[in-house]
Design brief:
The chain contains five helices and nine strands. It has 179 residues and is of the alpha+beta class. β3 and β4 form a beta hairpin.
Length: 179
């Protein structure tokens, strides 16, 4: 008891008395375990930050993501194509076939006659394994040099290389003189 400060010696003596009595020790550990279980149960009733968000807001954010992706891609392509020799002023329109594709982590159990899939959960929601970019349907490019077959071929090749949408889904045409 030499290394324990004087004010805590009484508390230490009570603790040792409690711990040395097997019945009291078991009752104490049981009460501690029950208190922990009750805290876990009550924590399920508390709203988490993600669950507290309104569903309408979450759905709006998901709908906004593909549009923002398309606008960013349009801006980046327009800037790059506009720097190509002969292209001049450029406007780009990107259309999406589908939004982002989300893959969730899952455990799959297969038996002789059935298959059971259980998604891996973390903090009450499915664990995301991968999110793929939205699929592109087509790209339209309108540029000042769009009537030149050489510019059309170069722009088509560039857009196909960057987006992998396929040359048959890319259109390049001349921009009109009117704004």
């Amino acid at each position: 008891m030499k290394d324990v400060p004087k004010p805590l010696r009484g508390l230490q003596a009570r603790w040792q008395q409690l711990w040395n009595d097997e019945k009291r020790r078991i009752n104490f550990l049981l009460a501690l375990g029950l208190a922990g279980m009750m805290l876990l149960c009550f924590s399920e009733w508390l709203p988490s930050g993600a669950a507290a968000e309104e569903p309408a807001t979450a759905a709006g954010a998901q709908a906004e993501e593909p549009a923002a992706y398309a606008r960013e891609l349009e801006d980046r392509l327009a800037e790059l194509i506009g720097r190509m020799e002969g292209a001049g002023r450029t406007r780009v329109l990107v259309t999406l076939a589908a939004g982002p594709q989300t893959s969730y982590a899952a455990n799959t159990e297969r038996t002789a006659d059935s298959q059971r899939r259980e998604y891996v959960q973390m903090d009450g929601s499915a664990l995301v394994e991968q999110v793929a970019s939205p699929q592109l349907l087509g790209v339209a490019v309108v540029c000042e040099g769009g009537d030149d077959p050489g510019v059309q071929a170069a722009v088509t090749e560039l857009v196909d290389a960057l987006t992998d949408v396929g040359a048959n889904h890319i259109t390049v045409t001349k921009m009109s003189d009117e704004p």
